[in-house]
């Protein structure tokens, strides 16, 4: 078999759809200077070696938003993939309606609570877009 070039680096990324009592989801805007700056995304980040996806998301939400969440409160929703010449990314989306603290944008330019229709209109990274439709039933559930 012929080598098609340098191997892509694979990363696992976890994200949260934090859902408020009105059925809106929290998204954050990527900060200036970051890749995909200005786009809106579900909060989260890369899983570290040895971390479960839930453990990684608990850590990331503390670091990025200053909130505490129990791993047991995270429900899997969907996943997506994105690939370019250097990277193969798998993004796992979890939903939760329960956390402690008020989300603050420690690692983002801004935060926004969005209903599903508003979410569909936001400019988002390619890996986040396919997660919107699977999330829709979660936002309408009470």
From TrEMBL:
Organism: Hephaestia caeni
Cofactor(s) it depends on: Mg(2+)
Residue intervals of the Nudix hydrolase domain: 9-141
Family matches, as Pfam families: NUDIX (PF00293)
One GO biological process term: DNA replication
PANTHER family (alphabetical): 8-OXO-DGTP DIPHOSPHATASE, NUDIX HYDROLASE FAMILY PROTEIN
Entry EC number(s): 3.6.1.55
Reactions that this protein is recorded to catalyse: 8-oxo-GTP + H2O = 8-oxo-GMP + diphosphate + H(+); 8-oxo-dGTP + H2O = 8-oxo-dGMP + diphosphate + H(+)
Primary enzyme class: hydrolase
InterPro entries with a match to the protein in the record: MutT-like, Nudix_hydrolase, NUDIX_hydrolase-like_dom_sf, NUDIX_hydrolase_CS, NUDIX_hydrolase_dom
GO MF, one example: 8-oxo-GDP phosphatase activity
Membrane-spanning intervals of the chain: none
Name of this protein: 8-oxo-dGTP diphosphatase
Keywords: DNA damage, DNA repair, DNA replication, Hydrolase, Magnesium, Metal-binding, Mutator protein
Protein family per UniProt: Belongs to the Nudix hydrolase family.
């Amino acid at each position: 078999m012929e080598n098609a070039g340098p191997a892509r680096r694979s990363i696992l990324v976890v994200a949260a759809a934090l859902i408020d009592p009105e059925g809106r989801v929290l998204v954050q805007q990527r900060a200036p200077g970051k890749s995909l700056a200005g786009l809106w995304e579900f909060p989260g980040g890369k899983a570290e070696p040895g971390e479960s996806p839930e453990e990684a998301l608990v850590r990331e939400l503390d670091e990025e938003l200053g909130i505490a969440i129990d791993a047991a409160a995270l429900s899997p929703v969907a996943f997506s993939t994105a690939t370019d010449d250097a990277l193969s990314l798998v993004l796992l989306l979890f939903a939760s309606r329960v956390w402690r603290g008020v989300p603050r944008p420690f690692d983002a330019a801004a935060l926004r609570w969005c209903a599903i229709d508003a979410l569909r209109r936001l400019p988002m990274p390619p890996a986040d877009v396919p997660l919107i439709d699977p999330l829709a039933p979660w936002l309408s559930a009470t």
